[in-house]
Amino acid sequence: MKRDLNCQLLIAVGVLLLSLLACETMEPLMSATTEGLLATLQGHTDTVTCVAFSPDGITLASSSLDTTVRLWDAAMDKRLITLYGHSNAAYAVAFSPDGTLMASVDGDHYAPAAPLRFGEYGTPYIPENEATPTPFMVILWDVATGAELMRWENEMPVYTVVFSPDGTTLAAGSAAGQIDGAVHMWDVASGALKATLQEREGVTVWSIAFSPDGTALASGNEIGITLWDAATGRMRASLGRDPIRSVAFSPDGTLLASGAANGIVRLWNMTTNQEQVTLTKHEGIVYGLAFSVDGTMLASAGQDGTVRLWNVATGDALAALRVPQTWVTSVAFSPDGSLLASGSSDRLIRLWDLGQVLGDERQDNPSQEVP
Questions:
Q1: What sign results for the dihedral spanned by CA atoms 35, 52, 89, 165?
Q2: Which residues pair with residue 95 across a beta bridge?
Q3: Which are the contacts of 278, defined by CB distance < 8 A and separation ≥ 6?
Q4: Which of 38, 151, 241, 279 yields a CA-CA distance of 20 to 30 A from 143?
Q5: Domain ranges, ordered by start, for the chain
Q6: How many whole angstroms separate alpha carbon 50 and alpha carbon 107?
Q7: CB distance 102 to 95 below 8 Å
Q8: Whole-angstrom Cα distance, residue 107 to residue 119?
Q9: Tell me: the pLDDT tens digits for 229-254?
């Protein structure tokens, strides 16, 4: 009896020690943010890679690794139409400035039965022997009807797309291939290729953005940022050495924001091409960036499962929206500044009420500490 009791005590102590050791190695659970969450849009069957509001704020577009592009009624929180033109994982969507057109791109072959692998900088991919090779596409859509208007084939995966501010040019950035990572620019009216801006050797273009006046284009890649003259296609400057995953110009064009694979967000002064502010609260890749329409706030979407809001003037953190056990891949402000949309790896799109998220106290005291 005594021996049995001793054994039971030893087992209990062992279990307790193992539990304590386990607790020391476990990360604390992160609770979800529900304050200000207006709606959760469901329908995609894989990671949501990009979200974008139409210029009038009525429609929200989303792309996904499930190969589909979806249009949603942003006010009614319901799906309007699903577009099936892509055979590969859809990575990005963008509206034309007048909202009549939308472009989408695909990168990485899609094989529903094959699990995704994650390569350098957290890039999702499917091994070639588990995928069905099909050309990578840039597709132009009619927003009102959902009709496909034009498509361009590309040898390499395409990860980012944007219209020029005047709507005449469509630009897309691709992975490194026989032509090293490049930005391709097409005439929207005719479909003719206008220029190919070839990046530095062996890099992939993850994100591109036109300056608001349309004279410059920024491309983010594994070794930094390249600034291009949009008219001539000539390289203007190279900024930084971070592996860049997202770039965005402020509405007045004075700042360029960059998000890196190391979690750092930087604000660059476009007059001097010098770094102005460094923001460091993210852990892991910063997949998406967006400025508010008035340029006072910056939103960043991270691999750490957070959307963070920043005061652009001071660099102070305003709020942290937490979506546990996911990667937040994209973020977008509505044109009237009242809503924020985020897409994530849990296949969901979330709509946030910024008035509730920030609150009167936070707006009056933007330097309040945010975890």
A1: negative
A2: 102
A3: 264, 265, 266, 267, 315
A4: 38
A5: 42-154
A6: 13
A7: yes
A8: 14
A9: 999 999 999 999 999 999 999 999 99
Determine whether 290 is exposed, middle or buried from the number of CB atoms within 10 Å of its CB (0-12, 13-18, 19+). buried
Residue-averaged pLDDT of the chain: 86
The yes/no answer on whether domain 42-154 falls in CATH 1.10.10.60 is no
CB neighbours of residue 216 within 10 Å: 20
User: For the whole model, what pTM was predicted?
Assistant: 0.85
Q: What is the dihedral of CA 148, 153, 154, 159, to 10 degrees?
A: 10
CA angle centred on 208, ends 206 and 214, rounded to 5°: 175
For the segment 117-136, what is each residue's pLDDT rounded down to a tens digit?
555 555 555 555 555 567 89
The order of strands in the sheet holding 274-279 is: 244-249, 255-260, 265-269, 274-279
Of 109-118, 317-326, 329-338, least confident by mean pLDDT is 109-118
Asked whether the predicted pLDDT for residue 72 surpasses 60, the reply is: yes
When pLDDT is averaged across residues 335-354 and rounded to a whole number, the result is: 97
Among candidates 325, 347, 357, 353, which has minimal Cα distance to 62? 347
